[in-house]
Amino acid sequence: MDVQNLTVAQVMSRTLVAVEPDESPLMAWEIMRRAGIHHLPVVDRRGCLRGVLTREDLMARWSGGPAEQSRARVHPLLAEHRCPHTRLDARLADAAESMIGAGVDAIPVLGEENRLVGMVTATDVLRAVAGRTAGPQESPELLTGMFRLVPVMPRDPAE
């Protein structure tokens, strides 16, 4: 298969873990750690993209201990964060060019009504270059792993 003719839909990751804007940075970090991911889409209740958090975003703004981070929310971390995106029918080469231009190593894929349907990561691009694409998927559905972990921490004696 010619890499120049590949579309985003042919190479994107379709099974994603995402959080809502009111999730805590502590939980976002733990979700990323447990899922082994570096990019965490932030979507509203309708599945519309609000931004993408990276491990670097969380580390750069981390202050205070676990109790403080569990009370904070991720949506303020998205305010200054540029989030390029692409569409299912876009050429992979164009998506890769957008990633390079924005200095990011992952780009969300949006479907109808700006709903998140997948992500293209640098690893997905490298797999395509190596000829290891899975081809078009039968189902265009995204299996979004929306879940909420509840931190179990000792109560702060000061409270």
Automatic annotation (TrEMBL):
SMART domains the record matches: CBS
Q: Which domain of life is it from?
A: Bacteria
Asked if the record carries the keyword Iron, the reply is no
Q: Which Pfam families match?
A: CBS
Under SUPFAM superfamilies, the record lists: CBS-domain pair
Note the InterPro entries from the entry: CBS_dom (IPR000644), CBS_dom_sf (IPR046342), Diverse_CBS-Domain (IPR051257)
| Keywords assigned by UniProt, alphabetized | CBS domain
Claim: rRNA processing is one of the keywords in the record: no
- Domain named CBS is located at 12-68, 79-139
What protein is this chain from? Answer: CBS domain-containing protein
